[in-house]
Amino acid sequence: MALDFTAIDFETANSSPASACAVGLVRVRDGKVVATAGWLIQPPPGHDEFQEWNIRIHGIRPADVRTAMTWAEQFPRLCAFAGADVLVAHNAGFDLNVLRRAAEATGVVCPPYRSLCSLQVARKTYELESYKLPRAAAAAGFAEFPHHDALADARACAHIVVDAARRAGAADVHALAAALGLRITDPVPAATPAPERAVA
């Protein structure tokens, strides 16, 4: 086995988990970043209002996504990039819920992705005052990136997991999870309420 996974990060237009407006993806093979991708998304109808709070966080405005692909249009591209990888995200419950809720809102079938939370990994790996993404990424040697840019955030997540695996002597994400007392999780069941997003 090798340290293979895809890191993912979503930005949302509002408090609805279905309101994805940007995604960043980073593919890691054998502990090295081998491919990246990121794009803007038109949030699904009914979830497409941009709230000022969200705009202040990520800087994405309605005009920015006017000509972007819709969720349904871009979803095959997202799935093709991720393949059958374990998805890594900082506060993975949020990002996997965005994936599932946006798929539900547009009637597309979401693959049964497994996930590992880099926030939990960081808490088990580093001694920090804060485990927000910039602090955790800096501990992993990845500093000074544009936080809340989806691709930059996904890259930061990837670096945390790669660094944690190196420190733990873990050959793959499953061994890393086991070494830290974590688990690779399946998607949240549909009946479970959407988790609120902690500021990463």
Describe this structure in a few short sentences.
By secondary structure, this protein is of the alpha/beta class. 38% of the residues lie in helices and 18% in strands. The chain contains seven helices and six strands.
Structure description:
With 200 residues, this protein is α/β, with parallel strands linked by helices. The chain has one domain (5-180): Nucleotidyltransferase, domain 5 (2-Layer Sandwich), CATH 3.30.420. It is built from seven helices and six strands. It has helices at 52-58, 71-82, 92-106, 118-125, 133-139, 150-168, 173-180, and strands at 5-12, 20-29, 32-42, 69-70, 87-89, 115-117. It has a six-stranded mixed beta sheet, with helices on both faces. Strand 1 and strand 2 (20-29) form a beta hairpin. It is globular, with a radius of gyration of 16 Å. Mean pLDDT is 93; it is low at 188-196.
> What is the H/E string?
EEEHEHEHEHHHH
Strand content: 15-25%
Radius of gyration of CA atoms, rounded to a whole number: 16 Å
What do we call the CATH homologous superfamily?
A: Ribonuclease H-like superfamily/Ribonuclease H
The shape is: globular
CATH topology: Nucleotidyltransferase, domain 5
**What structural class results from the helix and strand content?**
alpha/beta
Instruction: Tally the structural domains.
Output: 1
Question: Helix and strand layout, with pairings?
Answer:
Layout: E1 5-12, E2 20-29, E3 32-42, H1 52-58, E4 69-70, H2 71-82, E5 87-89, H3 92-106, E6 115-117, H4 118-125, H5 133-139, H6 150-168, H7 173-180
Parallel strand pairs: 1-5, 3-4, 5-6
Antiparallel strand pairs: 1-2, 2-3
